[in-house]
């Protein structure tokens, strides 16, 4: 049996980075228990607050965020944290080497209906800079030393990269250990499956309109293939499906609201997912460039996302370049 620790050692990950990862995983195990108890733990439904994005928080968004925040503050290698559910970064330990940025519970509209959600994390070096300042966190995705997500579905799974490929672990409820179940996964380069929230169609820019209408045209259209569509409304679940059987996931820019370049957030959704996708041989772009090459200007910055099977993402990109 190979555990997370076995793989971290195999990839020669430093003890300090391993410690930061284990701190995140400890919290994810607690979140997993709360999700399994669901209504019995009194954790379903809405909290009374809105987050910095103006979205109503679910109780479990707040509980998961607090769990991670408190645990990571006690983790000596962590210098600071930034979270989807925190307006500002939170300084942790003076001597910490890492910044942990996370989406505590991705896909939270799925919580109350017992459908897959997840915790997404991105770990950056702190470089001795002030962890209470936003500027310290504004590093591009290429600086990530580790990224991953814990998916809470029928099974709780960890998908992680420390820059040496992507490994998948399943939480064994008997031993409460994440056990290696898929080593070095690769995304198939071509696909017949796409994921996009079609209800936003009228708000999309022209290149996405054309590309999606060509997908829908199937074997009679210019792409000469019959495509299938899936939409789980949790990025973790879409990325998980794509890692396992390929596909393209899109959350493009749309003009529903002015000055809002897409729905997803660069630093705790776009970047960590892009690291996993690229490490698994896929591609992840914003319609112009690779997401991890974007220089962030704000912790809560949004980004259009096209990720997944390399050939399909290149196709989507070619519509933007045309
Ligand atoms: O975190 C944002 C998120 O919940 C993603 O996980 C998911 O892909 C997307 O929003 C769902 O968006 P929509 O509400 O448009 O279906
Ligand atoms: Mn999210």
UniProtKB/TrEMBL annotation:
One of its GO terms (cellular component) is cytosol. Binds 2 magnesium ions per subunit. Mg(2+) 2 binds at residues 103, 106, 269. Pathway: Carbohydrate biosynthesis. Belongs to the FBPase class 1 family. The keyword Repressor does not apply. PANTHER family: FRUCTOSE-1,6-BISPHOSPHATASE-RELATED, SEDOHEPTULOSE-1,7-BISPHOSPHATASE, CHLOROPLASTIC. InterPro entries: FBPase_C_dom (IPR044015), FBPase_class-1 (IPR000146), FBPase_N (IPR033391), FBPtase (IPR028343). Homotetramer. It catalyses: beta-D-fructose 1,6-bisphosphate + H2O = beta-D-fructose 6-phosphate + phosphate. It is found in: Cytoplasm. Keywords: Carbohydrate metabolism, Cytoplasm, Hydrolase, Magnesium, Metal-binding. The gene is fbp. This is Fructose-1,6-bisphosphatase class 1. It comes from Bermanella marisrubri. GO terms for molecular function: fructose 1,6-bisphosphate 1-phosphatase activity; magnesium ion binding.
